[in-house]
């Protein structure tokens, strides 16, 4: 086994102290630029790799992130819910590995676990303001990262995934196309992201003096054809599907041509089936919640700065993609 190169090895070759080596490699101290560059070049030549965990130990970091599993997540049997959780956990594991972090799973119903937890930040993919584990983390001074929930503490990161902006953009496009009665299709699971979408839709409708027209879907979306028909029977001339069922609705509209006029317009939310929507010509608005873990890690360094006077807010990208379909 090849022995790992140490700061002492570099110091012996460079003829300086290990303190000078540390200053050069970490861009600290008052070394002359030529000395600093010579030491860096020598470290690279020797194949020096910094020990992230030793550095973390010296700075009080644990190189671990706590991923909070929402209470009742196991009761959400919908394919969409399972896909959302699986993709988000996978994104967190990949982002953590890129930063040399490990991931500790924390059930939201067990705030007591934070008493002995050795973690640098607690991450909430989905969270409510009254979450007990969130309150416990804040009380203990542990940095927290939350998706779509602003936490007014110095040591917090708020990642805005773009769900509400996406809803407003989609509704605005349907309105610009002449839609006057826009139906909103959403899952009945009561997840924070679905609440964000429905709240944004109802607020948009209220501002424009329109009565909201909401249809809720069951976990397996077995009632999708019936809910689409109900929206159309209630006078909807357009549908925004927050339930991410653009392809299914498009195909059902074709199959139900004798029941539902073909002039109904459709825009769908999209987090995973964007390519299918594009192939079918369905206009869709794409959000990227799977980018939240990486964004959180990029902001984490600043969050540990206790001199900050405000939380860090990060906005994820989203885009509205116009399809070729007349719907």
Automatic annotation (TrEMBL):
Molecular functions (GO terms): DNA-binding transcription factor activity; transcription cis-regulatory region binding
Organism name: Microbacterium radiodurans
Domain HTH lacI-type per the UniProt entry, residue ranges: 5-59
InterPro entries from the UniProt entry: HTH_LacI, LacI/GalR-like_sensor, Lambda_DNA-bd_dom_sf, Peripla_BP_I
Pfam family, one: LacI
Alphabetized UniProt keyword annotations: DNA-binding, Transcription, Transcription regulation
Protein name as it appears in the record: LacI family transcriptional regulator
Coiled coil: none
PANTHER family according to UniProt: LACI-RELATED TRANSCRIPTIONAL REPRESSOR (PTHR30146), LACTOSE OPERON REPRESSOR (PTHR30146:SF153)
């Amino acid at each position: 086994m090849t022995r790992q190169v140490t700061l002492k090895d570099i110091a012996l070759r460079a003829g300086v102290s290990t303190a000078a080596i540390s200053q050069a490699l970490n861009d600290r101290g008052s070394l002359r630029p030529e000395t600093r560059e010579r030491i860096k070049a020598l470290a690279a030549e020797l194949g020096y790799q910094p020990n992230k965990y030793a550095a973390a130990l010296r700075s009080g970091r644990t190189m671990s992130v706590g991923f909070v599993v929402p209470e009742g997540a196991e009761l959400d049997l919908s394919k969409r819910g399972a896909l959302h959780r699986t993709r988000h956990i996978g994104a967190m594991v990949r982002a953590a590995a890129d930063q040399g972090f490990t991931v500790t799973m924390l059930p939201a119903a067990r705030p007591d676990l934070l008493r002995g937890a050795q973690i640098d930040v607690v991450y909430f993919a989905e969270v409510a303001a009254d979450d007990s584990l969130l309150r416990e983390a804040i009380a203990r001074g542990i940095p927290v990262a939350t998706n779509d929930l602003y936490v007014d503490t110095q040591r917090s990161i708020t990642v805005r995934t773009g769900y509400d902006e996406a809803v407003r953009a989609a509704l605005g496009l349907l309105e610009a196309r002449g839609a006057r009665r826009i139906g909103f299709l959403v899952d009945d699971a009561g997840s924070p992201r679905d609440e964000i979408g429905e709240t944004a839709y109802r607020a948009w409708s209220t501002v424009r003096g329109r009565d909201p027209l909401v249809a809720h879907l069951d976990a397996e979306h077995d009632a999708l054809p019936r809910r689409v028909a109900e929206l159309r029977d209630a006078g909807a001339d357009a549908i925004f599907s927050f339930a991410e069922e653009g392809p299914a609705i498009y195909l059902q509209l074709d199959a139900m041509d004798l029941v539902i006029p073909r002039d109904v317009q459709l825009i769908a939310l999209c987090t995973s089936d964007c390519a299918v929507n594009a192939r079918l010509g369905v206009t869709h608005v794409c959000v990227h919640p799977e980018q939240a873990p990486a964004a959180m890690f990029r902001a984490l360094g600043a969050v540990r700065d206790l001199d900050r006077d405000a939380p860090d807010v990060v906005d994820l990208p989203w885009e509205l993609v116009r399809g070729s379909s007349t719907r």
